[in-house]
Amino acid sequence: MPDEKKEKKIPEEEKQGEVDEASEDSERVTLVDEDGQEHEFELIGGCVDRGCQYYALIPAGDADSDVIEEYYIFKQIKNEDGTEDLVEIEDDAEFDRIAAKFDEAFDTEIDYDA
After folding, report:
1. What is the value of pTM for the model shown?
2. What is the domain count for the chain?
3. Which of 33, 53, 58, 89 has a CA positioned 20 to 30 A from the CA of residue 98?
């Protein structure tokens, strides 16, 4: 599954602590895994927590389904050269905190991965 890096920038319009669910015109993002494989995802939500930007994504093929069973959470980081990447959340407490925000916003029990 995708490990790091995104190919496309995502706007930072989300408010502190609130999850914004994506609109019908959802944005697609290409993530590149550790083997250089590209994977298409659709943005389903984003939030800012403690000054960091987070995004919930689903595989692009799942976007047509009425029920989202699984989604992935990524943290946006800024590199030294000013570019931005999406990375997996490695800290368990941080992941649990952000996953709880998304679960509450999506108002359903979802099996999620990072």
Report:
1. 0.70
2. 1
3. 33
